[in-house]
Amino acid sequence: MVDRLFAGVLLLVAIGYTYIAFTAIKAPFQYDPLGPESWPQLLGIAAILCAGYLVAKPDVARFGLALPTWARLAVLVVLLFGYAYLFQPAGFILATFAFCTLLSVMLGSRILPALAFGASTGVVGFFLCTRILELNLPAGVFAAYL
Amino acid sequence: MDAILTGLGQGFATALDPLNLFLVLAGCFAGTLIGALPGIGPINGVAILLPIAYGFGLPPESAIILLAGIYYGAEYGGRISSILLNVPGDAGAVMTTLDGNPMAKRGEAGRALSLSAIASFIGGTFAVVLMSMFGPALASYAVTFSPSDYVALMVFAFASLASLVGSNPVKTLFGAVIGLMLASIGIDANTGVERYTFGIPDILAGIDFLVVVIGLFGMAELITLVEHQATGTLKALKIDKSFVTMGDLARTKWTILRSSMIGFFIGILPGTGASVASAVAYGTEKRVAKDSHTFGTGDVRGLAAPEAANNAAAGGAMVPMLTLGIPGSGTTAILLGALLLFNVQPGPLMFQTRPEIAWGLIASMYIGNVALLIINLPLVGLFARMLTIPQQFLTPMIGVLAFIGVYSVVSNPHDLYMITALGVFGWIMRKLDFSLAPVILGFVLGSLFEDNLRRALSISGGDWSILLNSWNSVVLYLLAAVVVILPILAARRSKRRALLAEGDTPVIRP
Q1: Does the residue A61 lie in any domain?
Q2: B227 and A54 in contact by Cβ < 8 A?
Q3: I need a labelling partner for B280 at 20 to 30 A (CA). Which of A25, A92, A100, B106 fits?
Q4: Pairwise CA distance, residues B343 & B64, whole Å
Q5: Domain positions in chain B
Q6: Which residue from B55, B190, B407 is facing A36, i.e. has the nearest CB?
Q7: By residue range, what is the domain housing residue A90?
Q8: Residue A137 and residue A73 in one domain
Q9: Which of A9, A103, A120, A131 should we substitute to test contact with B (largest number of B Cβ atoms within 10 Å)?
Q10: How far apart are CA B82 and CA B90, in angstroms?
Q11: Complex-level ipTM
């Protein structure tokens, strides 16, 4: 069923993609026999055929995950979006500290080791990357001190 | 022959440059570490470290040497978690668990690890030697390819992908089409028309390759690890003092040679990498052996075969990437994308225009293989210690590395959301038995495929029959038909035989 659902969503996307390819994409003038629209048209039709086949003949019935697993995955995705949200304004050190600590606690670590792990990943990671490897990372709230 | 020797000479001059030599060794070391981590295979390792390597600002040949080192280092390292934990790092290492883990359980972990290191070394070296002999010849032949031949080559690549990778050919094909569709987003280079940008300025130049790779491989891997959450430490078997004997080598020498050969040629086939190669090699050895009942209970041949094959396949997969510009596996697709990031277009001309990259890479693979053998025999205990890092600390690190990688190269916070969303998408695809390698292959090949099709039709003035106009393309279409039809026939035959025998035949699923 999930297979059919996923393929159904992709089928809608593929139909939209193909519709745009046939209606919206047009070059104002061109010399070549194939314009910018032909390739997406071919791809769109191939995608519709594949997705249509999968809607008709799905082979994975269900995800087979228990409810706690779903909850864990939901928390993970929230954490990741939170990490992405905080990354620039709060800076690498703080955002990484929060992300690592929370995720490792969720994965079963005790609080103190998790705090130590989060803090060391944030601080060591920042200096390792910016000072030694010369990669660009946001300093965020510590910008004035670093 | 002369050209090969001068090429190799030049390659070694590049690879022995102190910086590059250091990068080979560092890449091999890091790759083995990553490969040894349970659940993380070469493709995820290369994907996660790619943007960081890119961010260093290295010249292209050094960056590709580093990434290639990580790639085959991870192929070596994968066997450690397979043998000691019974947890394969990726699909290519699954067959290694069958006989490797029983050996370790029997108290012969040291013997299994050292034998597999030697098998890996022979497989890898065999592939590099063949590559340096035939790569340039293939490249100079491929120079004569016309755009329509390239279209045929691409069709062949996707046909062999669909029929050999994954369980459901439609899903594999669909994955490749999704990759091609993602690649079509952005401004069309020929006419300047915007396609599927919906007025968003960030994607005018197309979706960033790094973002797709990190999202589909790094982040999806992170989500999978959390899904299978292993709390605490996995129980790794102890490494003992046993070591490979001359008798083992004598017993497995033909196995290793056969498997290297199989691995190399399967690796060359576009799209099929280590996973198919190791499964086929294992199956072949089992069929060839007179006493096949010992396979699966810790037979040295069952261990040597997949290990030789998957390292040979890693080398073989480099051949079409370097000579034709068409990657032979998901991981080489990422390497190819990495070269494109440096504005280097891999293809038949690379041996002439950028010999320092083509030959430098080949030479670095010779060095890397020797280095891997040396660091893997005595240091295996160190790598095995990686297995005891608690999972709850390892898993967040993947997320942190992915974020560092994307941010340090693109410096656009929106891409952090993008990789997370792509990670969820990739995880769903994995759960539904889509393999992700075709997506990245399609994404990398998208513009090459389209450009060649349009160029071919420009040459013919819109006449589609040009696609069948040369012998090269006709042969390639025939080969494409063969790779699609053969497995179907074989499946039908084995099904009929299974019905006759009324027993369950073992099915090897790559």
Answers
A1: no
A2: no
A3: B106
A4: 13
A5: 2-501
A6: B190
A7: 67-142
A8: yes
A9: A103
A10: 9
A11: 0.91
